[in-house]
UniProtKB/TrEMBL annotation:
<keyword id="KW-0808">Transferase</keyword>
<feature type="domain" description="Glycosyltransferase 2-like">
    <location>
        <begin position="4"/>
        <end position="151"/>
    </location>
</feature>
<protein>
    <submittedName>
        <fullName>Glycosyltransferase, GT2 family</fullName>
        <ecNumber>2.4.-.-</ecNumber>
    </submittedName>
</protein>
<dbReference type="InterPro" id="IPR029044">
    <property type="entry name" value="Nucleotide-diphossugar_trans"/>
</dbReference>
<keyword id="KW-0328">Glycosyltransferase</keyword>
<dbReference type="InterPro" id="IPR001173">
    <property type="entry name" value="Glyco_trans_2-like"/>
</dbReference>
<dbReference type="Pfam" id="PF00535">
    <property type="entry name" value="Glycos_transf_2"/>
</dbReference>
<dbReference type="GO" id="GO:0016757">
    <property type="term" value="F:glycosyltransferase activity"/>
</dbReference>
Length: 277
């Protein structure tokens, strides 16, 4: 089997249904499977999809252990040469899956691949192509609206939206990897409950000698934010994930950057908490 598509669901039945319909419509000329793992949703309506999509392998999880843990669990059941981590709040938009797999097959030391994403209004989502966080680009992201073109900033504005290029970090909303490589580097770090795990995985691939690619000629609709409640829990998980990342990669090796990033994250977290009130 060439491809295993892995989807983690949590209380987004209608979005998941639209995602599965888009897979049915657009994934052609590829032998594939779809594995949906439900992360202990409080809304049981996802079970209605089992009869509607009999070819999909649904896995119920008794606990919500987070996005990383659920993906790692689902991939244990995967049979594909490649795995595609796909958010349930996304929709494929074209017959590009075979092209992506052919491209990936032809790249030496292939790590992972992401594609161009946009929201429901057609706005490009800059997290489609990113740099590994460091002291300079993190300051830009946290405290400025600096989006100068031709700048290798946090969001890779030096790379055109429809380009095909080697890029450090893509988003976990659509992340294509070889299953063997995924397992070799240890999969997603389960220290991350949600957010940050995709950055960590992309960086781990680079540190192990692999190359990551942005494929901007293929596009994906991402209903960004529609499945996320912006509250204190969200903020704690988001900024907590960034803290995990800098603890892991900067605390000992780059103590000056670590101190700067830690202070910046704490300040930005407090600013966002004030905005919620």
């Amino acid at each position: 089997m060439k491809l295993s598509i892995i989807i983690v669901n949590y209380n987004v039945t209608q979005l998941l249904r639209n995602c599965l319909l888009s897979i049915q419509k657009y994934v052609k000329e590829v032998v594939y499977e779809v594995i949906v793992i439900d992360n202990a949703s409080t809304d049981s309506s996802w079970k209605n999809l089992i009869s509607e999509f009999p070819a999909v392998h649904f896995i119920p999880s008794e606990i919500n252990g987070g996005f990383s843990k659920a993906n790692n669990q689902a991939i244990q059941a995967a049979k594909g040469e490649y795995v595609l981590l796909l958010n349930p709040d996304t929709e494929l938009e074209g017959f590009y899956m075979k092209d992506l797999l052919d491209f990936s097959d032809n790249q030496p030391d292939f790590g992972c691949l992401g594609i161009r994403m946009h929201d429901a209004e057609g706005n490009f989502l800059p997290e489609s192509k990113r740099s590994v966080p460091d002291m300079f680009n993190s300051f830009e992201k946290l405290f400025t609206n600096f989006k100068k073109n031709n700048s290798k900033s946090y969001y890779r504005n030096d790379i055109e939206e429809d380009a095909i290029a080697e890029v450090e970090v893509m988003t976990g909303a659509f992340l294509l990897l070889k299953r063997e490589v995924y397992e070799k580097v240890g999969g997603l770090d389960e220290a991350y409950f949600m957010y940050g795990e995709d950055i960590d995985l992309c960086y781990t691939l680079i540190r192990n000698g692999y190359k990551n690619y942005y494929y901007g000629k293929a596009s994906l609709l991402h209903h960004k934010g529609e499945s996320t409640v912006k509250n204190d829990v969200y903020l704690n998980r988001f900024y907590g994930a960034m803290q995990i990342f800098i603890n892991k990669y900067y605390k000992e090796s780059k103590p000056m950057q670590y101190s700067f990033l830690k202070a910046g994250l704490k300040l930005r977290h407090q600013i966002e908490k004030i905005k919620l009130k």
